[in-house]
Automatic annotation (TrEMBL):
<dbReference type="InterPro" id="IPR036396">
    <property type="entry name" value="Cyt_P450_sf"/>
</dbReference>
<dbReference type="Pfam" id="PF00067">
    <property type="entry name" value="p450"/>
</dbReference>
<keyword id="KW-0503">Monooxygenase</keyword>
<keyword id="KW-0479">Metal-binding</keyword>
<dbReference type="InterPro" id="IPR002401">
    <property type="entry name" value="Cyt_P450_E_grp-I"/>
</dbReference>
<keyword id="KW-0812">Transmembrane</keyword>
<dbReference type="GO" id="GO:0004497">
    <property type="term" value="F:monooxygenase activity"/>
</dbReference>
<keyword id="KW-0472">Membrane</keyword>
<protein>
    <submittedName>
        <fullName>Uncharacterized protein</fullName>
    </submittedName>
</protein>
<dbReference type="GO" id="GO:0016705">
    <property type="term" value="F:oxidoreductase activity, acting on paired donors, with incorporation or reduction of molecular oxygen"/>
</dbReference>
<feature type="binding site" description="axial binding residue">
    <location>
        <position position="530"/>
    </location>
    <ligand>
        <name>heme</name>
    </ligand>
</feature>
<dbReference type="InterPro" id="IPR001128">
    <property type="entry name" value="Cyt_P450"/>
</dbReference>
<feature type="transmembrane region" description="Helical">
    <location>
        <begin position="89"/>
        <end position="107"/>
    </location>
</feature>
<comment type="similarity">
    <text>Belongs to the cytochrome P450 family.</text>
</comment>
<keyword id="KW-1133">Transmembrane helix</keyword>
<dbReference type="GO" id="GO:0005506">
    <property type="term" value="F:iron ion binding"/>
</dbReference>
<keyword id="KW-0560">Oxidoreductase</keyword>
Amino acid sequence: MAMGTDPRCVGIRRGGAGVDLGDHASRITTASRSCRVHFATAVLELLLANLLRGARQARVVSNEVGARAAAAGLAENDSNIHGDAQDELFARAFLALVATVTVLYLTRLLLAPLKRRAAATSPASLPCPRGLPLIGNLHQLGAVPHDSLAALAARHGAPLMLLRLGSVPTLVVSTAGALRAAFQPNDRAMSGRPALTAAARIAYGLQDIVFSHPGGAFWRAARRASLSDLLGAPRVRGVREGEVAALVAAIAGASAAGSPVNLSERLMATSKRILRRVAFGDGGGGEGSIEAGAVLDEMQKLLGAFFVADYMPWLGWVDALRGLRRRLERNFHELDAFYEKVIDDRLKKRAGSKGEDLHGDPAYRSTFNSRNQIKGILTDMFIAGTDTTAATVEWTTTELVRHPDILAKAQQEVRGAVAGGGGDIVLESDLPRLTYLKQVIRESMRVHPPVPLLVPRETIEPCAVYGCEVPAGTRVLVNARAIGQDPFAWGPDAARFVPERHAEVADLSDHKPWHDSFSLVPFGVGRRSCPGMHFANSAVELLLANLLLCFDWRAPRGEVVDLEQETGLTVHRKNPLVLVAERRRVQ
Ligand code: HEM
């Protein structure tokens, strides 16, 4: 066990039968143990003697009172008899309680050597950094949890460590090697998701893809039908190209007078519009889309909020006191009303015709047998698809502006690739030629994975990692950010932004599944990895290619673009990315 680890932490022992609640007694020496046995026996004897004497005295006193009453000619009264019996009963009950507690205590003391011997013969358990009573290691999550966890893992030399977040045992994976060891043999066991409070409500009681039970027919059908077919549909390409062109026009307008533009805000709006148009059809949600925007924003906030019930279920009532439960209910009902309207509108419009969106296509209607399932999937697209795409472009642009040489090289590639085709816009068909841009994006996702702790997992059955048994129901956090900085996987310059390190990747253009490699996992790992990856990569590449083609970018004079991070499931910049954009003139 590493230095500073907590022997009382919910532990996972090699070859053990599951959760070990730790053992104070194992630290008691033989001498002090035998002292304690004697002491406990003496206390028990004393207590028994006193209680028996007390009961006897009570009986004598009550008999005397009875005798005196009889002598006084009074009839023996009922309440005296009753009180006598009560005393007796109380004494017996108390005796039984003391005897039980003492027997338990003595058994524990006597079993301690056996437990110690068992612990001594089993090799080390997973490192378990010391926590506090009740909250466990929660306080160690800090302001930026993925960075705090990476620091904690480094301090304990623990690529795989076991924390207790509140009362929840949590396995944290922090290097590529540990990820391979944990997931390669246990893909199925590691494929559950915890039923977090906000997700369970907003995703219609887990009737969605992100949080539903893995391996079920619904989960499989939903992944296949909704995300590969729907997001891969031919019209999606037109939606992306149209929205990117609109973004370029908006930035050109806003920066015409030389004023800086808030790129973070604009990227988020574009990303949302793309997803809304794909999910709801061309209107992006119709007339109600502005109000819907606020409802969806609130949903994202609630999903990232800290619900005490997710860590200390017995303290869940605190969430109600904080008003979080009420907010969640209000948001759920607003969201539901919005979905109902959208689905009704779409069904009316499409009656009798074959559509390509989720709720209009008869093929989808036969796969999903309730409206709630369709609403759950729509929610997934907003949870999983909007701010992840925006954050990726935001961080990549941040790094480009901080590295003018890399920016120039990427710009040169993009401008060269479209020179023959009119040169004023990059289309999706141009993307396969942009090899260096793909390297830049990979590097950005290595250093700034938009979902640095992925989406939490939970083991659905017991499994073994490094020979240690991990019980079912253990929460699992994969630190994609720490894995991206792992010097064993990326070399001593892992902290530097060097897109060329991906030049050797055999084929950057076919969206080779990144989750096959355990050292670059921005889209997750194994069977539960992101099904929106192809869709997202196309959107990110198209957005960046057009921003580089159409504008020259720099920080406002005298300002430096920082790397401060905001917290949340998806991690954005803390300060919005505000840049000067100079429109490039096409000759
Ligand atoms: C750059 C953009 C994106 C990133 C970085 C990203 C990242 C992730 C990550 C890390 C996970 C969890 C994987 C795991 O547990 O191993 C995930 C799951 C998921 N993502 Fe994405 N994602 C992105 C875009 C999208 C888009 C555009 C969609 C769909 C519109 C989407 C839909 C999903 C869904 C449905 C899941 C849950 C899969 C499951 O649990 O079976 N994602 N994503």
